[in-house]
Amino acid sequence: MVSRDTKVHLGTVGITLLVLLSVEYAGLLPESEATIGVIALASYGAIFGGAHLYLAIRGDDGMVPAAARWRYVATLAVVLVAGVVYVVAGSVVVGPVTIGTVALAVAGVAAATYLVTESIDAYRSSSV
Known about the structure:
mainly alpha; two-stranded antiparallel ribbon; 3% strand
């Protein structure tokens, strides 16, 4: 039997692909590399985070606890914003470092923090 989580994930992927195909068919996609990069990141965000966001808002504790869904969505948001900053202003130099380097560092710290937080939470829930 297909779980509720799987149905929501498949629905999110289907809606995202339908929107992208519709926009492409209508000829509304711009040709700028930065804009295409931002659209790609937004699509990834919708595909990877849309179902988790929906289920977290509903408070649905299906296969994943709602608190873990919120942590995932928050981490994904930070990584996607860092990706947008990297795509749009990555080559801008501020002092001795580029904005792209800072964006990559922020994304890396966010991902590492998420990994540690989820590991600690999983350990605590399994040892109780």
